[in-house]
Design brief:
Layout lengths: L1 E5 L1 H4 L4 E2 L10 H17 L4 E3 L7 H9 L8 E6 L1 E3 L11 E3 L3 H11 L6 E6 L12 H14 L2 E6 L4 H9 L2 E2 L2 E2 L3 E5 L11 H6 L3 E5 L17 H14 L3 H12 L4 E4 L4 H8 L8 H8 L5 H9 L2 E2 L1
Parallel strand pairs: 1-3, 1-13, 3-4, 4-7, 7-8, 8-11, 11-12, 12-13
Antiparallel strand pairs: 2-14, 5-6, 9-10
Length: 314
């Protein structure tokens, strides 16, 4: 199975998560050293796809520094544009990131991101939505087509929110000079939000690359007293984890991989232990019955994203 490493938790000390453990990330040097170590360990464990963004704090910078220690053309880097990290490592910041889908922001963020070449293979709109009008912004779309051609990049987008499927359908119809612009679709998918399954056949028919994010539903796959309505799901997950002798995270990642064929599933590991546990997903297969059980825990995108909005940064 293809596991990639998402770097959101490596580039900034706070991330949206259900499990509110207070981790002291105030020592920036120690934090950077730890993140560098995770990148190196991921590589040594066979990961070759690394997903980053300027909205992830120091992530792009750290990844660039780490890449300078490598000479391996099998490494693939994906980055994004459209979010600016604003928390400045302040755990109590009211605003952690600001979204802006303008040509000015694209050009500004590309100036740093292009340093990731030649490892940079995928360049994405960070959280494309209908509300920002990005899929109709001719000047931005044309500039992305220029970057695609000049640097032999795949152009992609990431999706978030209740209308992911509608965004993807719109994106499939975006043409520049008569050619489809988007090659890669990075989509939120897990057994709670299964909306991707509505359009996966079309994406695969058109030979699009699928990258899955938030496979662990921001930690909602782990038992939590605040979510008694998931008790049956927790029991089934724990039973499957015991059956396959892995953690709940490996079950969640494996579900995504087996139900969305030929996808790259992102690990959001922030330390070596999490990384090793995530990679146990390569050690087993879920049965059809296992998958049917997990399919049964699907909830509406509206409920999924309402719950996610209520999660805090930690």
């Amino acid at each position: 199975m293809s596991i990639g490493l998402g770097t959101a938790a490596l580039g900034r000390p706070q991330y949206i998560n259900i499990r509110q453990k207070n981790v002291d990330n105030s020592d920036l040097d120690a934090f950077k050293k730890q993140s560098f170590s995770v990148l190196e360990n991921a590589y040594n464990l066979g990961i070759r796809y690394f997903d980053t963004a300027p909205g992830y704090g120091l992530a792009e910078e750290l990844l660039l520094e780490w890449l300078q220690t490598k000479n391996d053309e099998t490494i693939k880097v994906a980055t994004k544009w459209g979010y600016t990290y604003t928390a400045n490592f302040n755990a109590n910041a009211k605003v952690h990131e600001v979204k802006e889908h303008s040509l000015v922001k694209l050009n500004e963020q590309w100036q740093f991101s292009e340093q990731l070449l030649p490892y940079l293979k995928v360049y994405q709109i960070h959280s494309a939505t209908l509300e920002t009008g990005i899929l109709e912004n001719k000047s931005v779309l044309e500039q992305l087509a220029v970057l695609k051609k000049e640097h032999n990049l795949k152009i992609g987008l990431t999706t978030t929110g209740t209308n992911q499927v509608e965004v993807i359908k719109n994106a499939l119809n975006v043409l520049v000079d008569g050619k489809q612009l988007f090659d890669v679709y990075q989509v939120t998918y897990n057994f709670l939000d299964q909306s991707l399954s509505e359009i996966i056949d079309e994406l695969q028919l058109q030979n699009k690359s699928i990258v899955i994010k938030e496979a662990l539903a921001n930690g909602r796959v782990f038992r939590n007293k605040k979510y008694p309505h998931y008790n049956k799901m927790y029991t089934v997950l724990e039973s499957l984890a015991h059956k396959h002798n892995v953690g709940l995270d490996a079950i969640a990642l494996k579900y995504c991989n087996q139900t969305i064929g030929k996808s790259t599933v992102l690990s959001g590991a922030s330390n070596l232990d999490q990384l090793k546990e995530n990679l146990k997903t390569n050690s087993f297969l879920l049965s059809n019955n296992d998958i049917e059980q997990l399919n049964s825990f699907k909830i509406s995108p509206e409920l999924y994203w309402q719950e996610r909005k209520e999660l805090q940064w930690n």
